[in-house]
Amino acid sequence: MDSAERLQKILAQWGIASRRQAEQMILDGRVWLNGEPATLGQKADPHCDRIQVDGRTLQSDRPDLLYLLLHKPTGVISTCSDPQGRTTILDLLPPRYRNLGLHPVGRLDSETTGALLITNDGWLTHALTHPCHQVSKVYQVWVSGYPPDSVLQQWRDGVMLAGRMTLPAQVRLLERTEIPSALTCLEVILWEGRNRQIRRVAKKLGYPVVHLHRTRIGPVQIQATDQPTLARGHHRHLTPGELEALREQVGILSIAAPARV
What we know:
Number of strands: 17
Distance between the termini: 33 Å
Structural class: alpha+beta
Helix content: 10-25%
Strand content: 25-35%
Shape: elongated
Radius of gyration: 20 Å
Order of helices and strands: EHHEEEEEEEEHEHEEEEHEEEH
Number of helices: 6
């Protein structure tokens, strides 16, 4: 029986990337098969063939699935490696996690803090980042000045960015301060994830972001009621309830209990 499968499917199953991302990695020459650059559509058997991604050889057995929540601090890059030698999210995890195909689900820019999901489940990554599922993300946003409700209503209704309107958002006033400067703290809930969206919208509306912090992704939050507060720079495993709730949101049935290594 032929156990060979398309390379992009293997990379997704091994948690390297979503299938679409894996296809691009192959096109970019980052995937090699038995010592030669792989081509899109090639099949392989990880138990017999040598598959390399960015020079690293895939282990023959699919790694156990891991689902982590990281409280990302400022200055950390939301990638698994950085050619400039900057601190990445994998640098914040124990060494035993380094070769398990872990990757971030979406990204936070370097200066943004807060909730970031990390997994080696390529299927879940693809589902959570696909625009059709519109998984909510909640942010605390400190902006300069005191935006009036008319401006906040513009944000709620949608703002034109790069020729396309943003989806409607929930925007709620949390706090205003005068010292050391005039600042407003807002809660912003988005159902899309365009590049640096909150920072770009706030700047366009005339009230630039001073600090941005993500508190929740779907049902997963940094300060969960049944979990200890997650300190900045630390991580924890998702609870079974959180994982089931995430899968329900994107229509993926539970297939196995997550590993806790």
